[in-house]
Amino acid sequence: MLGGNGRGSEMPRLSDFEVLTFDCYGTLIDWETGIVRAIGPWLERSGVSATRDQILAAFAEAEAPQQAKTPDLRYPELLARVHTALAKRFGVAPDAAAAQAFGGSVREWPAFADSADALAYLKQHYRLVVLSNIDRASFAHSARKLGVEFDAVYTAQDIGSYKPDPRNFEYMLARLAEQGIARDQILHTAESLYHDHIPAKRFGLATCWIHRRAGQSGHGATRPPEVEVIPDFRFATLAEMADAHRAGSGC
Known about the structure:
A 6-stranded parallel sheet has the order 3-2-1-4-5-6, with helices on both faces. The chain is globular, with a radius of gyration of 18 Å. Helix 9 (193-202) links the parallel strand 4 (186-190) and strand 5. It is α/β, with parallel strands linked by helices and 251 residues long. It has helices at residues 31-45, 52-69, 75-89, 96-103, 115-122, 136-146, 156-159, 166-178, 193-202, 238-247, and strands at 19-22, 127-132, 152-155, 186-190, 206-210, 233-235.
C-alpha cells in the first residue's frame, strides 16, 4: 500500500502547497467522452454493438502496452496503433483512415464543465504545472479549452516516455527543482491511480484524487491500480477542490 505525504503524522491542508502538478486527460479534459465519441460511431458503422464501458475497457487494455512498447511515438501516432488493436479486439477489419482520424481526435476531446473556472481560481493561489501523456501540438488544442496559462507543461513528447514510467516524474521534479521548488511544496492532482497516484507516491509526493469516475463501476479508460494507494485528498470534481480551498477546509 502506498500512502503518506512526507509530513509525518501531520494532516496536510490544501494551503500547505505552492504548486499543483496536473494530469490533463481524465482530470481536466474528459478523455473518456472523447474516446467514446470517436470509437463508438466507427464500431456502429462496422456492425459492432459495444457499450461505453466495453469501449473504455478495451481502450485501457490496448493503450498501456502500446505506450510501454513505443514510448517515443507522439500520442496521435500511438492512438492510431491503439485503434488498430481495437479493430482486432472487436473483430473489425483494420481501417487506416479511421485510425488516423482517431489519432487526431484529441483536439476535439471536451474539457470537463468545471475545469476552466476551477483552474482560474486555483491559479490565484498556486503555480499550475501539467505533466501529461500527450504531444505539444495536441495539448495546444486542449489548453485553449482550459482557458488558463500554465506555468510549465511537460509532455510525453518532451520526455520520451509515458506515465506511469518513473522517468516522467523524474523529469518533472528535476525541472521544478531547477526553479527552486521542493517536492514537499508540490501537490500532484490527477484522476488515474494507475498513471499518476502510484508513481507520484513512490516519489514521495502528496496527491489529490479528482475522482471523476465516482459512482461508476470499473476504471474506465485506465488500467486498475497494481497496488493500493491512498491519496492525501479526494474530490469528485476540480470545482469541489477549489471550493474546499476557498472554504479553508482542505479535506
